[in-house]
Amino acid sequence: MYSKFGRIEDARHVFDKIPERNSASWNNLVSGYVKMGLYWDAVVLFVEMWGCCGIQPNGYFVASLLTAFSKLENMVLEGFQIHGLVLKYGLLNDVFVGTSFLHFYGVYQLPCCAQTLFEEMPERNVVTWTSLMVAYSDNGYPEVVTNLYKRMRHEEVFGNQNTFTAVISSCVALDDDFLGYQVLGQVVKSGYLDNVSVSNSLISMFCSFDCIEDACYTFEGMIDRDTISWNSIISALAYHQLYEKAFSLFSEMRHDHNDVNSTTISALLSVCGTIDCLNLGRGVHGLSLKLGWNSNICVCNTLLSMYLEASRHKDAESLFLAMPEKDVISWNSMMAGYVLAGKYFKVLEVLAELLHLQRTVNYVTFASALAACSDGQLLDEGKTVHALVTVHGLHDNLIVGNALVTMYGKCGMMWEAKKVFQAMRDRELVTWNALIGGYADNKDTLEAVRTFKSMREEENSPNYITLINVLGSCSTETDLLKYGKPLHGHIILTGFETNEYIRNSLITMYADCGDLVSSSLIFNSLLNKTSVTWNAMLAANACRGLWEEALKLLLQMQRKKLEFDQFSLSAALSAAANLASLEEGKQIHCLATKLGLDSNSFVGNATMDMYGKSGEMNDVLKILPEPNMRPRLSWNVLISVFARHGFFQKARDTFHDMVKQGSKPDHVTFVSLLSACSHGGLVDEGLRYFASMTSEFGVPPGIEHYVCVVDLLGRSGRFPEAIGFIKEMPVPPNDFVWRSLLAACRMHRNTALGKVAAGNLLRSNPSDDSAYVLYSNICATSGRWQDVQNVRAEMESYKVKKQLACSWVKLKNQIVTFGIGDLSHPESEQIYRKLTELRKKIQEAGYIADTSFALHDTDEEQKEHNLWMHSERLALAYALISTPEGSTLRIFKNLRVCGDCHSVFKFISSIISREIILRDPYRFHHFSGGQCSCGDYW
């Protein structure tokens, strides 16, 4: 009696007072201990009974004892001993005892022992069959479970609720919907459809088979529901992203059932990782705090995932720091979130803290760390993580191996990537794709194709990712003809052309190889275009310099209510940057902020570049990440923006800050740095930086760096050094080298060397209009008018047309463009009247025209008149009459501003007391108070 009512101490007191105890006394107390969860006390009592009293156990006693063994750890040997004892006393014929042993062996992951015992049992009932099925089900043998079920039905034994639950879960594990629906028929026939546990299993099965309507039908038909029932249907709806229905049922659950647990909370949070659902997620977060589930580690981990998926990294960080307990999933989630956000230094900080605290790490931890080191600047850290992988014995892990191949490939170290690949014991399709992707990232088309062929020779079937990687390796017209088009044919033959991602990659490949017509044909032929397809076409247009078309595509996407992501926004921001279209750029930035994508590294850097190219230096600095959180791309953008705006010392200082922060410069860094030195007249510093590229930073010089050095020496008039440098270059000089030298000759009026540079430039490209124009200008400034006529005649013979100069102003949503001497604008009279007024004022202030910039053989008065017809002056006059007093004026020009216009803008900025920002193809000129940011050296 005391045992049944849970008063085990009273039961023991009575037991100890009994002068003579029989088997019933011992059995009742042992079973009482088991019912109370005092399993070890039950075992101790059994030892006392067996050792001291020699009382023979019965079947009921053995079943209780085996229950105790199942709940305790490391009691398998004792279980074997009891098995022997049972055999000795002939108790195994008792079905109840045999079933207890089946359960015991299942708990200790010995289903084979359970099977052997089962086959020896003289009598079996539904509980026996079910116990064996559960043993195999719990140990991951779903196929054995279904075979046992078929065998049981063949022997005409009907299942119970536990049987159906085990078989249904096995159908799910096997993804066998046919058998699942057969079992459903047996459930209905047997009358177990109203059983709560069976219905719960059916809901999970229907969800797994994507039959959400059947899952809802089953749930709605349930007479009784427990917490598992509600959680199952809410989880099913959440899995299928039916968040409105999930929250509606959750509201019903709270009203009708009101037993919310961590599973309920986690299921709801799993659908809240988007901007649209984030407020719902915050509500659930608040509810979890109210119900006291905020300390539950599963709930906290799901909250972490929700905030990270919604790009709310600060919220995730706050939650992570406040978590009272963290497991390996918590740490790994935070690392994966930082990887997605591009905060690679933070990933490594988390790893360092994990190792310092000696917490558990696994292959997922290192996979995230290696992904963080895949942007090139963290190669040294990546090598350290590789060493840690080896120390922790995870070097043979397939996922870690794939991450290593990917990391080395993205860092440009393909020999290391291939070395890891060859050392891997096991390889899968992902491994091959990682290696091919590395060659694609490094534009090594030949090796990408070779690896693709090797993969097929080893009888590995490619998937769409394989083909995307090979397509991505093609970047030239030669690649297109030799590899791209044949691969396109292979894609058609193998049926991959219907794959959306393949089609998008084909659009990108043709555009990268210069065939935008084919890209457009593929795009226009598609009836159902997704956001990814639009992104591919948008990026293709931006890549080929069709920036207005790119922005039009973004507008069309918005009208079609397609979702934007970091790729569409960064491509559109790039287009706005190159157009210097500040208004559109600001709108895209606002859209990125609204969508929560402004913190994405790609979008952030594209936004910085857009503001930089639109003349908004202050906005660049506002969104710039902190130095210790700043990726290399952000450093590069900042150096480039400073250089473009004439802040040469700041560009140089930023480079030194970058190095001090431990961010490794790359070839792009040095192009921006050398360009800053060139336009700032920092010749000796620039030469030192060029020398340190390889010696200190291990960056091999490319043709872009050689062009910068030639420009650096040429601008400063150090022509002998420039010629000597060109002769010593390890690569042949290209058009850009000769064009830079020719522009320097124009600046310093070096006619003889200009003729040599022009000749070399025209030899490689006879239709290059810049060569004719620059050389013609050199001759004109030297008064060699016959040579000017000869150059113009040669241009006509080759049908080369000079690019016409134009300037434009953007006011509100209108762009107003002016050519030289333009009279087409409706307000031309007011514009020229304003010019006359400005001319008079600056002449009074000391302005004297420099007619050497008037490149026509006329008298001085006509030359000065021609200078006042320049397009940038017309644009400035129009801006002055069309904008409010005190506002900043922004003028854009397609060609380099002439020296006399530069002087005029300086005088005018002083007279009108307004800032004027003039952007030409090379830089921004900030005119204020009679001074220019370029220091008159540009």
From TrEMBL:
UniProt keywords (A-Z) are:
Repeat
- Signal peptide segment: none
A Pfam match is Eplus_motif
Q: Per its record, what are the GO molecular function terms?
A: RNA binding; zinc ion binding
Q: Where are the PPR repeats?
A: 22-57, 125-159, 226-256, 296-330, 428-462, 530-564, 631-665, 666-701
Q: Which residues form the DYW domain?
A: 846-938
* Gene3D superfamilies per UniProt: Tetratricopeptide repeat domain
Q: Where are the transmembrane segments?
A: none
Q: Which InterPro entries match?
A: DYW_dom, E2_motif, E_motif, PPR_At4g14850-like_plant, PPR_rpt, TPR-like_helical_dom_sf
Q: Which GO terms describe its biological process?
A: RNA modification
> Can you tell me which family this protein belongs to?
Belongs to the PPR family. PCMP-H subfamily.
What name appears for this protein in its UniProt entry?
Answer: DYW domain-containing protein
Annotated organism of origin: Anisodus tanguticus
